[in-house]
Amino acid sequence: SDLSFILGTRPEIIKLSPVIRACQQRDVPFSLIHTGQHYSDELDSVFFEQLELPAPEYNLSVGSGSQGKQTGEMIVEIESVLEEEQPDVVLVQGDTNSVLAGTIAATKIEGIEVGHVEAGLRSFDREMPEEINRRLADHSADYLFPPTETSRQQLLSEGLPDDWITVTGNTIVDAVMQNAEIAHEQSCVLSELGVEEEFGLLTAHRAENVDNRDRFISLLEGVAKAAREQELPVVYPIHPRAKKRIAEFDIDVPEAIRIMEPQDFLDFLVLEDEATIVFTDSGGVQEETCILQTPCVTLRDNTERPETVEVDANRIVGVEPDDIAEGTREMITVESEWENPFGDGTSAEQILDALEYDRE
Ligand code: UD1
Ligand code: UDP
Predict the structure, then answer these.
(1) Which residues are registered as beta bridge partners of 30?
(2) Is 38 touching ligand 1 by the criterion CB < 6 Å?
(3) Start-end ranges of CATH 3.40.50.2000 in the chain?
(4) Please, what CATH class does the domain formed by 182-332 belong to?
(5) Cβ atoms within 10 A of the Cβ of 216, count?
(6) What is the pLDDT of residues 169-190, one digit of tens each?
């Protein structure tokens, strides 16, 4: 095939779906290599079905493990698939271990070039595994697709050549535009969950928050405090990492927060769109709330998506309860009429244009 996509987790499946569709429309031969980093149905196959993506040609079934074990096994497996497949270009998206492994394996094989979708994001927090992954991916790739001018400037400031870089917007805008209407038509999530009035939506899964007992408890208490102040019920579709930690740390989840299974993409889009406010530590959720004009409170000490804060769609509040409550009071009164900084929903087309795959 001309193009191989390497993907492994929920956000990569969602954010690469528009690029995969654009390949189908342009008749670009491609293959999908799934690392198996995510394997539970609700983080994986549900998105292939709902986004109508073809089944991956390869599933490497690497699964969970320590950073080194997971990444190392992926590198070995990806290398052997790529040697067989010999694509011209490998595309990776974002900052997961699958991205790092895919980039390292591909870049060292002669005749294969690497494109990094969502390049140039920086939290400047080197404690995060994602920050290491995205930096290394950017510095090994041949094509860089930053979503915004801010991320392009970051790449330039790190010495990466301008002619490798194309600002494309973020493919999440394409994905939201392709699915939001269908979501509202098809999803019954609001009535199923009984949240037809005002409600808050919470997602929290990031290692630095949920792997630390005190931090996770503080985060939950902060969201509960804000929820009580605003008289909002809060729903929390929980990532398996966070679910595991709640059991392991024996955490009592405050009554104001209702835990539920992870949602599929269409249901989750409706929840994000209809929520009064969203609390999150997710990268993709900061972007989607900004696109959907829903105010966001980010439960982290930093963000690699400063554009959302600049347009006044997001506040970075950390995990102290008073700060979460204050950020919520501020965001709840903000007028939701900011500009979406992440492009016009043609990112996938722009990526294929930059790779010179002609339109039909
Ligand atoms: C990974 C990414 C993170 C991204 C997230 C998207 C890295 C370093 N982290 O975090 O940047 O935001 O995916 O959701 O790449 N588990 C399951 N089922 C699965 C997968 C995982 O139950 O299908 C559980 C396992 O207990 C596992 C834990 O979740 O140990 C963590 O999974 P892992 O892939 O290591 O990281 P994520 O937290 O999912
Ligand atoms: N998402 C979903 N169901 C959920 C929670 C999130 O479909 O229950 C989607 C969400 O719409 C977004 C993506 O998953 O597109 C974000 O993934 P995640 O938060 O796991 O990873 P991050 O973006 O932080 O890397």
Answers:
(1) 3
(2) yes
(3) 3-170+343-354, 182-332
(4) alpha beta
(5) 20
(6) 999 999 999 999 999 999 999 9
